[in-house]
Amino acid sequence: MSDNRFILEKYDPTTSYFQQKKFDCGNKLINKFVHGSLKKQVSRHFSQAYVLLDLDDNERFSAFYNLTSFKLQGSELDTISQGSLPRDIPCVRLVMLGVNTSLQNKGLGRKLMSDALHRVHRASKEIGIYGLYLDAEPSAINFYLSLGFNRLDEANTDGSNVNETGKMFLSIDVINALLD
Ligand SMILES: CC(C)(COP(=O)(O)OP(=O)(O)OC[C@H]1O[C@@H](n2cnc3c(N)ncnc32)[C@H](O)[C@@H]1OP(=O)(O)O)[C@@H](O)C(=O)NCCC(=O)NCCS
Asked: What domains does the chain contain, in order, with CATH numbers?
């Protein structure tokens, strides 16, 4: 796959993207969101989205992610944070991420996440951001672990999880260490 086959650009809700309504990443909820809600969400400023267009296929809508601001409870970070934290923690939330099934496992998800980390890194120089939070689909938890995210499950004293969720977090310290 050539490096310049794809362009990643800010999603413009006034544009009609080729095959956006046919986007299929294998996850029904994410597909439905892209077909019916993404345009409205972005035009109402509830999130900003970034879209990957395939230049070999009429600039087809091939992958996307979207980011929003988010308030995390300090107690949610107990398992990964030393020292006390305020009750409300300002974060960025990765709302959704999806790659068309025909293009999965080619490094595009990783490429989009790298773009997201650069954006969070830049924004954190202007606005207080403690890290990047997301709610992962069970099938994608390993993908995010491989990128350095921590799980925010409640741990038992023996290290096992009492309450398995897909809540995951990457602190701004780690992002800065990668990108500063
Ligand atoms: C999860 C998703 C975005 C990953 O995108 P992708 O383009 O297939 O991922 P990449 O090719 O960049 O993979 C990066 C690495 O993660 C691994 N990986 C990808 N998907 C994985 C999964 N579901 N579970 C475990 N590892 C996974 C790859 O093997 C690769 O590892 P490597 O670099 O060591 O070879 C994509 O599979 C997808 O759209 N899934 C359906 C929607 C979804 O679950 N989105 C996440 C919602 S929170």
From this structure: 3-179 (3.40.630.30)
